[in-house]
Amino acid sequence: TISGKVLPNIDFKFNEHAIANNAYSEIKLEGSVFCDNIIYMAPQVPKINITQATVNLNPELIQVSNFNMLFGKSDIKSKIDWIQPLKYFTASSNLNIKIESQSQIIDLTEWLSEETSTKSEPSTITTNDLKGVQISIKSSISKLIYPDYKINNLACSGLLLSDQFQLSDFSAEINGNQIQANGTFNNLASYML
């Protein structure tokens, strides 16, 4: 079941030619969406509660701010910027997103089950699916709960560029040991098969 309040106020009018040429003066997309106390409940899944979120829209940017969510024992506060969002609906399908998030506790044990260890269906994601994707991430988690590990003060930032992920900064305290890392991961689609 799902419940809560969503208050949209959106006005739009545009065409593909104007989007492809960044002719923002010819594009009308403005407004906001306010979300309040949205609750999702389903069997065998921890309760998900978006306590508050505000979405502001214009042709150059869709911004999600004041996003506060509780899922089970976990919490997350985040800000999401979707840059030139209408480009996604053109032939190029470009996707440019920036995500910043902070969490006090993320409890992964609530999401693990015996089914997790069984073999899953092969992924259908291909390199072509990731073409034009650019997602930057900056995240911090004070405490991450996972079986057999004590993980504190986790912080990371990175950039997904099509089929490549650039991890620019990762640090965490794992079982009392300080870990730092950076690097580049190529051919991501092949890891999802």
Protein architecture, described:
- A 10-stranded mixed sheet has the order 1-2-3-4-5-6-7-8-9-10, with no helix packed on it.
- It has 193 residues and is mainly β.
- Strand 4 and strand 5 form a beta hairpin.
- The protein has helices at residues 16-20, 188-191, and strands at residues 2-13, 28-42, 45-58, 61-71, 74-83, 95-107, 133-146, 149-161, 164-174, 177-185.
Overview in brief:
With 193 residues, the chain is mostly beta strands.
List keywords for this structure.
single chain, 193 residues, mainly beta, 10-stranded mixed β-sheet, 10 strands
Strand-residue fraction? over 45%
Estimate the helix proportion, in percent: under 10%
Rg to the nearest angstrom? 19 Å
Main sheet: strand order: 1-2-3-4-5-6-7-8-9-10
* H and E string: EHEEEEEEEEEH
Tally the beta strands: 10
How does the SSE layout of this entry go?
Blueprint lengths: L1 E12 L2 H5 L7 E15 L2 E14 L2 E11 L2 E10 L11 E13 L25 E14 L2 E13 L2 E11 L2 E9 L2 H4 L2
Parallel strand pairs: 6-7
Antiparallel strand pairs: 1-2, 2-3, 3-4, 4-5, 5-6, 7-8, 8-9, 9-10
